[in-house]
């Protein structure tokens, strides 16, 4: 068959809406495209018609992986100058096509030990990655996860732990504050303590970061607030239990609700590539059974999830070459 047209296939994928939870159509398209090119395709059911797509032509030692879902809102593709625009062009449909084209080029040269794993659900909860890890055949030695790293290999990335702080007070008329207890004031005192806390630091990943993402509470300006809640997200660099332990001193003021976490991850790297720590989380920490993990991709995370998401066509073509270079190095090791 003819070589993949990287631009045309990227645009076709971008033009299929695949907001997280609604990936069925893109799963069908990707699976059929792979089968038409002679791959053995395994569809891993996640929920309903949402499936991961695993494609092989031999026994894979290296897997290229990325995700098929996108954040909303859907925007179709267009080419302006040297860039493809549209939702998912950068994160991560252009990456998917670069990986696909790299494996096609290696197949044409007789190399069949590289496979493809395209996942659903990465943008919200990584349910596809969790299913893929359960169904791993345990034969791969390396997994190269595709995310927008601007053509660099990732040294690793922070994980996350989300917690909610719940303060309880006692309602009263604001003209008689001594009859009540302000939950908002208790919550603010707790948050002030959190802002002053020494959070864990990792020598490679750097310091733990956190964001107070939402605060809710109170009934009316003339009512002492009986309840208040804050939603916090910590970008963690050590086991999440360490952050929970640091928060213990605020328990007299608030209840601490653990919501979820994704581990941080140190990744393997190779000589000959620029390297960086990325600030976002990915599927990679949940794909433990697929071997040693690396991460590389074209495009910039700074335009992902924006109304001007785009990727340079030259970066997609460079990634096709770089993915081959990475795979050959790993297979030779």
UniProtKB/TrEMBL annotation:
Homology family: Belongs to the peptidase M20A family.
Class of this enzyme: hydrolase
Record GO terms (molecular function): acetylornithine deacetylase activity; metal ion binding
Keyword tags: Hydrolase, Metal-binding, Zinc
Keyword Zinc: yes
EC nos: 3.5.1.16
Required cofactor names: Zn(2+)
Record flagged with keyword Hydrolase: yes
Domain Peptidase M20 dimerisation: 156-252
Name assigned to this protein: Acetylornithine deacetylase
Entry superkingdom: Bacteria
InterPro entries: ArgE/DapE_CS, Bact_exopeptidase_dim_dom, Peptidase_M20, Peptidase_M20_dimer, Peptidase_M20A
């Amino acid at each position: 068959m003819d070589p993949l047209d990287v631009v045309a296939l990227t645009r076709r994928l971008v033009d299929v809406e695949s907001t997280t939870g609604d990936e069925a159509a893109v799963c069908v398209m990707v699976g059929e495209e792979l089968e038409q090119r002679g791959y053995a395709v395994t569809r891993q059911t996640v929920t309903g018609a949402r499936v991961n797509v695993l494609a092989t032509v031999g026994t894979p030692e290296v897997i290229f992986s990325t995700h098929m879902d996108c954040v909303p809102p859907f925007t179709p593709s267009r080419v302006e100058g040297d860039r493809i625009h549209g939702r998912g062009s950068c994160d991560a449909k252009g990456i998917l096509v670069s990986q696909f084209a790299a494996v096609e080029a290696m197949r044409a040269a007789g190399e069949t030990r590289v496979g493809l794993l395209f996942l659903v659900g990465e943008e919200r909860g990584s349910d596809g990655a969790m299913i893929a890890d359960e169904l791993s055949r345990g034969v791969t030695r390396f997994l190269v996860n595709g995310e927008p790293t601007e053509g660099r290999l990732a040294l690793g990335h922070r994980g996350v732990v989300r917690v909610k702080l719940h303060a309880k007070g006692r309602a009263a008329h604001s003209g008689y504050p001594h009859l009540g207890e302000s939950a908002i004031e208790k919550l603010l005192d707790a948050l002030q303590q959190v802002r002053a806390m020494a959070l864990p630091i990792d020598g490679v990943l750097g310091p733990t970061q956190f964001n107070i993402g939402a605060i809710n509470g109170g009934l009316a300006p003339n009512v002492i607030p009986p309840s208040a809640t804050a939603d916090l997200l910590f970008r963690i660099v050590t086991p999440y239990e360490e952050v929970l332990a640091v928060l213990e001193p605020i328990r007299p003021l608030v209840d601490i609700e653990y919501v979820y976490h994704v581990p941080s991850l140190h990744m393997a790297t190779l000589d000959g590539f620029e390297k960086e720590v990325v600030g976002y989380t990915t599927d990679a920490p949940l794909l433990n059974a697929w071997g040693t993990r690396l991460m590389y991709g074209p495009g910039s995370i700074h335009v992902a999830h924006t109304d001007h998401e785009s990727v340079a066509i030259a970066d997609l073509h460079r990634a096709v070459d770089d993915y081959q270079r990475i795979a050959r190095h790993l297979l030779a090791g």
